[in-house]
Amino acid sequence: MGKYFGTDGFRGEANVGLTVEHAFKVGRFLGWYYGRNSKDKCRIVIGKDTRRSSYMFEYALCAGITSSGADAYLLHVTTTPSVSYVARTGDFNCGIMISASHNPYYDNGIKLINSNGEKMDEETIAKIEDYIDNNTSLPYALKEKIGRTIDYAAGRNRYIGYLISLAVCSYKGIKVGLDCANGSSWMIAKNVFDALGAKTYVINAEPDGTNINMNCGSTHIEALQKFVKENSLDVGFAFDGDADRCIAVDDKGNVINGDLILYICGTYMKKIGKLENNTVVTTVMSNLGLYKAFDAAGINYEKTKVGDKYVYENMLKNGHRIGGEQSGHIIFSNYATTGDGILTAEKLMEVIIEKKLPLSKLAEPVYIYPQILKNIKVKDKKAVQEDADVKKAIGDVGEKLGENGRILVRESGTEPLIRVMVEAKSDSLCEKYVDYVINIIKRRGYEN
Questions:
Q1: Mean pLDDT of all residues in the chain?
Q2: Which spans in 231-332 are helix H?
Q3: Active-site positions?
Q4: Spatial separation of the C-alpha atoms in residues 90 and 209, rounded to whole Å
Q5: How many Cα atoms are found within 13 Å in the side-chain-facing hemisphere of 8?
Q6: What's the pTM?
Q7: Residues 387, 393, 394, 398, Cα dihedral to 10°
Q8: Which of 128, 208, 338, 363 has its CA 20 to 30 A from that of 34?
Q9: 77-124 tens-digit pLDDT
């Protein structure tokens, strides 16, 4: 993780933490870097979400890219996984998605994708950061070598066709609710579900530049729960701002989070012989109940650091076919190189239809343990993790919880925070042990 780019791109408040100058420089460097030794014109594909500032950053990136002699292909408002798909299936040097995912509208971000549709490597990102800070002189393109900006809505349409082609059955007669978070999926998701025959009901698909993720989408699932129950729908799917996440709502209005999606799809893949290595990849934040359910189903699992980047790296290295996060980033590596909310919804629909069971029934074998996570702002994250008294407190809690719970204390990757998470048989136990560890951290003088 660098100075500007975290596990999910360069993110910050528009024109505060992330400015147009930053975007221009990112474009300048990428256009030069990928075009410097190439006989062919460097081609970079760009997508954006519905934030007001996304247009500003798109123009700044294009100015940087074209001034370095590369061509910028614009998908316009689209999803992160669509940029990944177009980058890996077209003749592109790299891709850029302008989005701050589930963050509020006033934040934005720049996500960089390589020509394989994967998150860009750390070495290249380090070079970009060095250029941003040191203002190294790069040559400007002149005359006929100046790049162009090209409308490439056709690429987004090709992605929609790809999603439709992946469905193995018709959705005819099934009532599906979609919460598009006033974000990237607002035009795409309904097209896909309508084409597959569903009776599609959509909410939060009227973006105005400032309402993305506002009390809607995968981070505010209560809106979709209410909608599903009020309209007696069979299932609902909520996406985040750039639609790389999906959280579902079952026929009874219950939340089906990423852990439950991993269980439902993982056990189905095992049944049909498509669970490569009999393994599902999770992060350390997945619920204890998921692991117990996998044990009962005879499925192996691996745990990575928090971040879909680490999940995908594990899958790529070991040949695993499904992995993801509790937050709804689910990766099906046979079909995509990143989390894809709409694809995840399709895969859940496949299980519902093929098993002829409602989503509520499919999720029944998993008991989700109560979980409480609290953050404490600290002066020195590393010092907290190495403190003997803090370590002892964590060990004591772990012993008391035994097999019926767990504690996880980790550093935030982007903020001066320590995150303390406890799972146990009751909320009161979770609260008790989280507060116990946080109070030790405070007494040791680390709180900032």
A1: 96
A2: 258-271, 288-297, 308-318
A3: 101
A4: 29
A5: 23
A6: 0.93
A7: 160
A8: 338
A9: 999 999 999 999 999 999 999 999 999 999 999 999 999 999 999 999
